[in-house]
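Minutes, methods subgroup
Present: GH (chair), OT, SY

1. OT presented the first of two proteins processed in the latest run. Sequence and structure tokens recorded below as shown on screen.
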Amino acid sequence: QVQLVESGGGLVQPGGSLRLSCTASGFTFSMYGMSWYRQAPEKERELVASISNTGITTYYKESVKGRFTISRDNVKNTVFLQMKSLEPEDTAVYYCKAVSTLSGVSYWGQGTQVTVSS
């Protein structure tokens, strides 16, 4: 059974930091590119950051460059999103997504809420 379980969300003040985790099971994690998306209320889901299956290549949405860092541990089957200097505009539900490098099949996690507010 495929599972992607996010954790690490919560309420943080502007300027604060959070680290999100997404732990995978039920598939060969090292063969999947991983991404973090977010969806704010009444807005479309958007890509925040992605990392290749090897961890060599990363991508960041322009507005999070220099503040967010995506990384992965292929032994622990986990992808991380380290977020610092958080802004109210970062408030959203954050989702992880896995995409197979072979077939293109994809899986989504259930999401974790991040709220940046004073």
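2. SY then presented the second protein from the same run.
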Amino acid sequence: QVQLVESGGGWVQPGGSLRLSCAASGIIFTIYTMGWYRQAPGKQRELVARFHSDGTTNYADTVKCRFTISRANATNTVYLQMTSLKPEDTAVYYCNAVHYRRSQEVYWGQGTQVTVSS
């Protein structure tokens, strides 16, 4: 059974930082592209960052230079370090895993709430 379990969300003031974690189980972690998506109220879910199985990364323009995605293959964990947070970063953040060859094989976590406000 595949599980993606996010943690690390919460409330933070503008300009603050948070680190999200996603622990994966039930998959061969190294052959999956791991990503973070977010969904704000009334908006569509959008890509935040991805860490591909070949080591490359890509980011949404809105978070470049503020967020960093990383992965620890030894512990099957992907992280999202978020700095200089803005109120518009408020959303539910979801962890995502996509098989590197079978793109239809997709898994999602349950989401973790991030709220940025003063």
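Chair's summary of item 2: The mean pLDDT is 96.
Next meeting: continue with the remaining queue.
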